[in-house]
Amino acid sequence: MIRNHSTLAGDVDVVVIGAGFAGLYMLHRLRQLGLKTQVFEAGKGVGGTWYWNRYPGARCDVESMQYSYSFSEELQQEWQWTERYPKQDEILRYINHVADRFELRSDIAFETRIASASYDPESQRWSVRTEQGATLSARFLITAAGCLSAARMPDLAGLASFKGQCYHTGNWPHEPVDFTGMRVGVIGTGSSGIQTIPVIAKQASELVVFQRTPNFSIPAWNRPLSDEDQQAWKADYAANREKARRTRSGILYEYSTRATTEVPQAERELEYERRWNRGGANYTHAFNDIYTNRTSNDSAAQFVRNKIHATVNDPDVAALLAPNDHAIGTKRICVDTDYYQTFNQAHVSLVDLRAAPIEEIVPEGIRTVTATYALDCIVFATGYDAVTGALDRIDIRGTGGLALKDKWVEGPRTYLGLMTAGFPNLFFITGPGSPSILTNVVVAIEQHVDWIAKCIASMQEHKRGVAEADASAENDWVAHVNEVASKTLFPTTKSWFMGANIPGKPQVFLPYVGGLGNYTEICDDVAADDYRGFAFKPF
Is the pLDDT of residue 387 over 70? Predict the structure, then answer.
């Protein structure tokens, strides 16, 4: 249902921004509390990142039996997945099924972006304005805009002059794009690039991959899911979900209890090989010190480099594809199907942008400092302004008119990743300072949504009108997030985890690396202690 914008003005209890996994579940929980809620969604349909990311090869890197809601036993029993790792279109079908099954669409305004939101302490309400000019008043404002929703286009000279077609993996056309017989350039070799390159190579007459930074990728070994596979999970779904919630990533991986140094080299190689053959990001949990000890990390990384060299025929190309500048896992580990094998095809070439940077886009294609590449299409697999990007695009102002982007000018500051001081009744789902992008995000979403819903219910019960993060609690949490990160290898790498892919963005570690299980215990302890670190005001 697409609401008429003229009917949106008025008062509601809650405004929710975004109708992906987070926004839909938040709406469901708020309805259970009897709160009048309005959800705004920029797209024409539900799905969030899976609505926009329709590029060839788009697929989740968390297994389908785990990348799904757990809040409804009936839902998780009735839905049938078809593959080990779900494709974008299957995930989108699932999200649409959820929206229909729980009749959520009637409270969602599609094709509507939020332009601004400002808090009035006297009325204790948020004034929310859409880009179309409609204004709503809400007691609570909840952002469910997603950690990977603000697509990033590089600032390249001459882009507007290109005579061919340009696409971004994060904002792909809804109609299929046929690359048959075309000369295609792909800029970027992160997760979306690694997924789409092998698929585009099957159609294009020539494919040129422009790589600045190589990334580690583990084979998915994707396969159809049999009924037996699914029933084995479903028979014990509740127990599996509970175990996953207690893990560091919200995923049932094999988390080793052994350090690399405790295991002889030959045995290590066997364990790496076993996990490589199993596939997926589980590889990086082969030993419990891979993320904290550089020597141990190098051991796991070298195994992957050796696999790259064994797979890619041209040793020079293999050397360019094998990362040597960062610890494995400190950039998002990629999961692929035939990525490295693709570079053995005669019509696929690799350009090292470190050796020959792009000088400009020209009408005929891409010019580097050493050559010009004639192209019919350019695909930008250049990622996102992660975690904070979607919020920066909205003029959010708290007490005294302070803009959120100004408060966060030196990096985001939150308490538990849920609220930020000076912005009463503003909740973030999977915000900065929470495990978010380091987890199975659906599990992290459910944990945040449930916590927020319980907090609001408690406020209703105790006749509290306003909740706000205490500045001292926020400072302590920011210090804790940084302290935990400093004990790992993550801060040693320039990555989008650090905001390093966005020029001018403060380079601070955005998520909480202490683990989802530990984080959940902290949040539950805070709530049990009458929401310690939050300040409340009566109506």
Answer: no
